[in-house]
Design brief:
256 residues; alpha/beta; Rossmann fold; 4-stranded antiparallel beta sheet; 8 helices
Length: 256
């Protein structure tokens, strides 16, 4: 389980303090897919980055599987982060490395021997359907393929948690849906806990079981995706935009 207890984050602006996330309590059950919804600037990405201490909390406690991350040394934090993978909107692949080398890079940082890195990287690429793209460079890959390489890189360290920061927003709708299907399958097959940042309720309704809606750094609604629409005005707005969206799109193989 992921637990945030009265976690907040503030930044110093030019003339005033910016409260990116106000005191927040959150519990994300093990093995579930959890959504962080809201418009741009709501605090979604800040909250996500606080989970693995890419951002340091101003106040509060972050726990993963009962371990308090906020009190860890940098060495202990690096070890704890091995159970947390992360994928981003812009893929963040190294242009001078092949798909296989990009995936192996996370294992290189983790200190695995070269032979073991190669095996694990190949297994990770196979798990996202890209065994035939090992030697391809990012410039030779489609947007969907780049995101699959990024997912494989995150999976290579065998994390228990996957953090997804707008992972499909840079993709066309067909390709985005193929990535969502992949993430759903990974959750089903591996029991992996996933936290998905998105401004799109359609993405959350397809993938997530539970979600919170953030506005101006505050949680304004908590949603069980299988239940009736939420009561807040912002929650109702998000749910209205999701009406009629279904998983009926036939995806071209080259975008997979």
């Amino acid at each position: 389980m992921i637990e945030l207890l009265q976690v907040s984050k503030s930044f110093m602006g030019r003339t005033e303090t910016v409260h990116a996330l106000q005191a927040t309590d959150l519990q994300i059950p093990k093995g579930k897919v959890y959504g962080l919804l809201g418009f741009s600037g709501a605090g979604k990405s800040t909250l996500l980055r606080l989970i693995n201490r890419l951002e340091e909390p101003t106040t509060g406690i972050v726990r993963i599987a009962g371990q308090d991350l906020t009190g860890l040394s940098q060495a202990a934090l690096r070890h704890a982060r091995q159970q947390v993978g992360m994928i981003f909107q812009q893929f963040n692949l190294l242009s001078s490395r092949t798909a296989l080398e990009n995936v192996a890079f996370s294992l290189e940082i983790a200190g695995l021997p070269t032979a073991q890195r190669q095996v694990r990287a190949r297994e990770a690429l196979a798990s996202v359907g890209l065994s035939d793209k090992e030697r391809a460079y990012p410039a030779q890959l489609s947007g969907g393929q780049k995101q699959r390489v990024a997912i494989a890189r995150a999976l290579a360290t065998e994390p228990k948690i996957l953090l997804c920061d707008e992972a499909t927003s840079a993709l066309d709708p067909h390709t985005a849906l193929s990535i969502l299907r992949l993430l759903k399958q990974l959750n089903k097959d591996r029991g992996m806990t996933m936290v998905m940042v998105t401004h799109d309720i359609k993405v959350a309704s397809y993938l997530c079981e539970h979600a919170v809606i953030l506005e101006k750094g505050k949680v304004v609604d908590r949603i069980d995706m299988g239940q009736p629409a939420p009561q807040s005005l912002l929650g109702k707005f998000f749910f209205e935009t999701a009406k009629g969206w279904t998983d009926q799109t036939v995806l071209p193989q080259e975008d997979a």
